[in-house]
Amino acid sequence: MKFFIDTADVAEIKEVNAMGLLDGVTTNPSLVAKTGRKFKDVLLEICDIVKGPVSAEVTSTDYAGMLKEAHEFAALRTNIVIKVPLIPEGLKVVKTLTGEGIKTNVTLCFSPTQALLAAKAGATYISPFVGRIDDIADAGMDLVAKICKIYRNYGYTTEVLVASVRGPMHVVEAAELGAHVVTCPFGVLKQLTQHPLTDIGLAKFLKDWEKVPK
Ligand code: G3P
Question: How many CA atoms lie within 13 A of 153 on its CB side?
Answer without folding.
Answer: 8
